[in-house]
User: What shape does this take?
Amino acid sequence: MPLPEIWFPFNKDSDVDNVVHFLEELPANIKSITDPDNSNFYEVCLYKAELGIDRILYEASLKEATEEFLSSLDESKENWSEQNLRRIGFSGESLILKAKILDGLWKKMRDLMKDVWKEYIDFTNDTVVKWLREFLAFLNSILGSLKTLIPGIDSIKESKEIMETFISITEK
Assistant: This one.
């Protein structure tokens, strides 16, 4: 699974459709960060932490969180409206701004990766990790805002935060 070029494309007719599309792709995009074809996450972060957690458990947990999140998304998206999104700052220019910031942070990290190792997230490279952490922090803000619309969003948010915890342990 390749790394996404962008995380928040605007190719749908409505803000609701664009947000739904972003969220439907979110679990796969998160998984792509740790995919062995795209990064050395398992070797550098998961195993170096020495907590007795292997890739099988980590991926099973992510799969479980993905299923819960996508189920919750399916149940809740039918009740969304442009007005619901406006109330949480996810419509019009505000939504475009959030999407451009998220994609801009991702692009910055990807550009740095290409300078070091083509299309590969090297978790031993402090500069790449710094920008990845900035990206993940902003993604966390977006997911927190969407919590009022998707009660099950915490499952995928927690999976992302577990990945961040392993990155933090490695930095120590």
Observations:
- The first helix runs from residue 15 to 34.
- The CA atoms of residues 107 and 116 lie 14 Å apart.
